[in-house]
Structures
1.
Amino acid sequence: MSLNDMVLSHTTKGVRQACRELWTEMQIQRRHFASVRKAKRLPKAADLKLNLGCGPCLKPGWINVDTSAPEAELQLDLREKFPFPDACASFVYAEHFFEHLEYPSPAMTFLRECWRVLKPGGILSLGVPDTEWPVVSYATGDRTYFDLARDRFHPAWCNTRMHNLNYHFRQVREHKYAYDLETLKQALEEAGFVSIARRSFNPELDSRDRMVEWLPRKTAGLYVDAHKPDSLSHSH
């Protein structure tokens, strides 16, 4: 009997899955601590721009951060405290990353860390899947969202509206929480942000594969800008 056969015969699928997840977390930890050390050696810039959870979408001149993207400057675990000083960044950006964090923690930890590293008046710009649209579409029988999702974003097996909703919420266990504007705004306010507003797709900032030209906001996603207060008297 091979070693693989012995493992299969003496363990359950649940145990094997847990072992795979533990191994993944150990690799994330290794890359995280290496990047923490690397971050301390970075030149001390007075005006950082952070692209968090960037995946392959790197921004020249920014600090690009993603735990699984070897091309990024830093492979940090963004569930942890950021290795950046207070008030060092003027702009923090995260596109289709925030929904991959469990709520309330570590999602709120992430928002508070974004607030901490931003300068007074600095901007946090978040892009997440817009959950209001698919839910309303399901309730009203409007097929626009579902046709778009199947054509652009969801795998072929999503061939019923409920499959599409499940994929939107879960994305094969990758999505941890869903947001509409009300819920995202509430979380940002709790973290100390002000002047929170939805914005349209910005092709000079956002990933072009997220653009949907014929939609009013040019995207199926929810993009929000939030500001750290200018006055230190509003510190959180």
2.
Amino acid sequence: MEYKIVTPDDSKYPQKLIKRLDNKCPDKIYYSGQLELLDHYTMAVICSDKSGGITLIDTNQVLFTLREYEMNYIGGWYSVIETEIFRLSLFKKNTTTTLFSAKGLNKETYESFLKDRFYPPLHEFPERDEYFRRANNSELLMLSVINPDETRQLRKNIMERNWLSCVLADIVFIPYGPKSSKTYTIAKRIREADIPAFSTDSDECKELHKIGIPGFNRKTVKDFLEVNGAKLAVPGENINSSEEVYNKPISQQLSFIKETHQTELKFKKKSKNSNL
């Protein structure tokens, strides 16, 4: 991938990093695309990949509210929930997306990043075409702070990527982060740095609640977003209507909330003379 480099002495260097990290800022940020997306109102997403069905459902409910706000979404987009939110970030014309890779940008490309998020059967989602359109038109941003020739996603690189995603954000959404997970470790750092963060109000997130990460649902998250500066998106700017995205046949989607299905059982009628 063709990339550029920005350093702390450059006026284009993200100011949130300088303000929050001071002399601990990365010496180099490698990027491809629109670096100015980081100047937009930004929400980072980090979530453990150990989440279950209840967490998926509770997260999906909060997403119904989140998608109505104009944001730049930033993250590594790796776990199941992160991938679903990543697709949501392509849902409206006035939302933007920043991809933060734990690999080097000599090795990572938009296509290689995409293959990990839209593998079959996810390849039939309409957001896949929108992703490629934005990539081809330089409407996305990909970041890395890793040696450009690094091909592996090392744990230390993943932790650094997740932490810097949060530092670059105005708010952080943590749908799930149990104790002993990388997400929980980052959540504690977020609290110490006083970066606004939230989770769902699910009991599944009680460990996050105990360290001061508040939990919200579809109705209550609105106040938190607006107190922290989020603005509602302009109506009518959807790329796809919610019906088009969320009501596709089950074979073409991986939805958090699936309609219940009951198998129809048919039995042969017994003749009057047959034995039970």
3.
Amino acid sequence: MTQDEQKWAHIERITSAKSYAKKEQNNKKQFELYEQKIESLEKQLNVFKLISSSKNTDKEISINSRSKTGEATAFAIASDWHSEETVDPDTINNLNEYNLAIAEKRIENFFGAVLRLTEIERAGTNIDNLVLALLGDFMTGYIHEELIEGNSLSPVETLLWVKDKIVKGINTLRNKGRFKKIIIPCCFGNHGRTTMKSRIATGAKNSFEWLMYKWLSESLTDGVEWQVATGYHTYLNIYDKTIRLHHGDSLSYQGGVGGLTIPVEKAIAQWNKGRSANLDVFGHWHQMQQNPKWVSNGSLIGYSPYALKIKASYEPPQQTFFLFDSKRGRTGTWPIFV
């Protein structure tokens, strides 16, 4: 064998050895992968065997549908009925209609819904007491000249009409609601005033609604606890929490981007410096909204030409119902579509 042949034979042996070593390395890696796969499959098989061996397929969670835990107070918020005001559907693109007959039906729907919602929630908790918050503007009044032309009743006639409907509603709640006590905090609104301009310190003294509240509080006393505000705010202590109620007209809202949220938050922060409250409840703005700190009520009258003029968002006529739990505070809030 020549020297060149020996050289090439040596190169072939080296190349063959390297190829064999590389193949062995690949086989080793492949073997390790197979081992890992087998180990994984064995674990899955063991889990499957464990699940298959269990004989609990016929078991279920034991639930006592009649069990009740805790205690709560029901809240029904009534405001902004504007009972004698007329809404002609032709003036608002047929989005709403309102007159005395429709107002009476919606009032009946409101009190009926309070009873139904209370019974629904009693399936899970004990509800012995109801707070029926009367937050004002149950009448529109004559605070603008146009209202003298359009209202169905005069302020005095409206006062008598509204009083009759509230009495019927309270009697329904007393007779059919199975409540041990009905608490009625009352706030006067800005529409039921006897003057053209709003009064501040003497607002109660110049309010048809305040007069109605005083009459009701003296005539309906059986099972009912009245709290008639002479100032803008009234405070209600429920369990260990304080609730502040007011009509809502002192809030300054000029249609900003944040809606009601920013002015309400600012007002609450200022009021809490004097007397703190855990929750604010108010009406006036005809908008049902809620926040951990406050609840804004809707309206019974619904969308109107005035709402259209000021570019208010459309909202169907509605009031508010919520539960206030003895340990957790406000736990649920529902609209009452009337």
4.
Amino acid sequence: MENRYDPLVVLISGRGSNLGAILRAIGEGRLRARVAAVISSRADAAGLDVARAAGVEAHVVARRGSPTRDAYDQKLIDAIRPYHPRLVCLAGFMHLLGPAFCSAFPEAILNIHPSLLPSFPGVDAQRQALEHGARVSGATVHFVTPELDAGPIVMQAAVPVNYDDTVDTLSARILGEEHRIYPEAIGRLLDRGWRIEGRRVRFPAKPE
């Protein structure tokens, strides 16, 4: 029977851990969506095997061979558009997307980041939190804009930073929260009724 749930396209560059969390949420009925395709920037990304094991179309759109970021963005746009996704979900996708890409999918591109944005954007967010002596870090689902990790925030989860934490132990606890909130945030956006006001994402009030 045809799956009429809203299609997602997931972009990855590595192991596909958050992709796996999205697929589990769909399989368990917690997320009424379908992953129409997975696109990786790297041919050796383990997440491609995660996609194929779930019966999802998996493609590689490599950065190499594209002379500029705009050219690479256009390659991605051309690969994604045939799937008509409601949302494009970045899950460990290690490339900054430019204005042309963001304009192609307005208010429809999500990312998951391992900190409580706007604190500690960019790479090595967990290490940044430890080096700054932060007592609390966490995970953030946000809309993607051309500015690094600066789009409107959809959902966050706090994770205490323990005195004896290492980058690995803190990363593991944050990852558990990423796996929890990313499918939940996707589901809330697919329910419709939300809007962006300035930098704030407004969801409709829940009936009492």
